[in-house]
Amino acid sequence: MATFRVAYDRLCGVSKRAERAKERTRRGERPPAPEPLTVPVPDNHAHLDIVAGWSWDGDRDQTVPFDHSSVTAELDAAEAAGVDRVVQVGIDVASSAWAADLAVHDARVLAAVALHPNDAPHQTDLDAALVEIEKLVQRPRVVALGETGMDYFRTEPDGRAKQEESFRAHIALAKTHDKTLMIHDRDAHGDVLRVLDEEGAPDRVVLHCFSGDAEFAAECADRGFYMSFAGNVTFKNAPSLREAAAVCPEELLLVETDAPFMTPMPYRGRQNGPFLIPLTVRFLADYLERDVDALSTVISENTERVYGTWS
C-alpha cells in the first residue's frame, strides 16, 4: 500500500516540499469543533487517508500505514458536528482501493476512485492503472470516478497530453458504469469543458473544490454540472468564488472540505477535517442570505441525488 508521503507528493507535487515546510510551521493546534449543524449535511469530498497520515503536532511527511481504525475518530468528530456522511476520494490505485475498503468498513462513507490528474502523467503504464481503477469502480459503495480532470498549475505542458488521455478514459468509465464524474479542475476551465463536450458528459458531473468565476459557474450550470464549494470560498482573497456561488443554482450546490486542505476561515493554514464543514455552510448561508437549516437541507438532498443514499 502506498505511504502517506507518496500519496501526498502525487497529489501536490514533490517540488512543493518547501511550501509544505512553511505550512507546517503555521499549522498550529487542531481547530475547535464548531457549533453543530442542526440539519446534517455530507462532506462531498475528503481525503481521510491523508488526514490520518498528517498528525496535528508532528511531521506530515511521516510514513504511516493506512489503517481504517485511525479515521474513526475523524468520522465521529464529523458526525458530532452534524456532518454525518463523507465521500472518501482516491488519487491513485492504492488510495482508491483504500477508499473502497473504508466505504465497506464504515457506513458513513462512500468512495470515489480515480487517478488524480497530477498522478496520471507519472504512470509508467497508464492503461494498466486504468484497468485497476475500472475493477475498483465496480466494488460495493463506490459511487464516483474521481478525482480526475485537468490541472495546469502543477502539470507541465509535456505531461498534459497524458493527463487529457486519462481524463477521457475516466469519462468513458463513468458512462459505462453509470457513476458520477468528480472533476479536479485547476487553471484548466476551458479545456475541461472542451473535453466534456467532445466526449459527452456523464449524467452526473461534479466540479470539486470549484475554482472558477461567475462566468464559468454559468457555463457549468448551463450543462447541469454540480459545483462543490470548499473552505476557500471563505478566504478574503476569493471574491470570485463567492460570486460563483451566487450564480450557482441552488439545486446544483454542494459543499466539501477537501480535507486536509482548504481549511475555512478563521483557521486557514491548519489541517482541515470533515468536522469543519459547518463553518463553510454557515458562511455560504450568510453570503447567500439563506436560512442555515434550509440550505443544509438543500445540500443534503443535492448530494444524495448525485451519489445515492449511504444506507
What does this structure look like?
There is one protein chain. The protein has 311 residues and is an alpha/beta fold. It has helices spanning 4-12, 17-26, 48-53, 72-80, 93-105, 126-137, 160-176, 189-199, 214-222, 239-247, 277-287, 292-307; strands at 41-46, 83-89, 109-113, 142-151, 180-186, 205-208, 226-229, 253-255. An eight-stranded parallel beta sheet has the order 1-2-3-4-5-6-7-8. Helix 9 links the parallel strand 6 and strand 7 (226-229). It is globular.
Topology of helices and strands:
Elements: H1 4-12, H2 17-26, E1 41-46, H3 48-53, H4 72-80, E2 83-89, H5 93-105, E3 109-113, H6 126-137, E4 142-151, H7 160-176, E5 180-186, H8 189-199, E6 205-208, H9 214-222, E7 226-229, H10 239-247, E8 253-255, H11 277-287, H12 292-307
Parallel strand pairs: 1-2, 2-3, 3-4, 4-5, 5-6, 6-7, 7-8
Helix pairs in contact: 5-6, 9-10
Query: In one word, what is the shape?
Result: globular
Helices, by number, come to 12
Question: Which range best describes the helical content: under 10%, 10-25%, 25-40%, 40-55%, 55-70% or over 70%?
Answer: 40-55%
> Main sheet, how many strands, which sense, barrel?
8 strands, parallel
Distance, first to last CA: 28 Å
- Helix/sheet category: alpha/beta
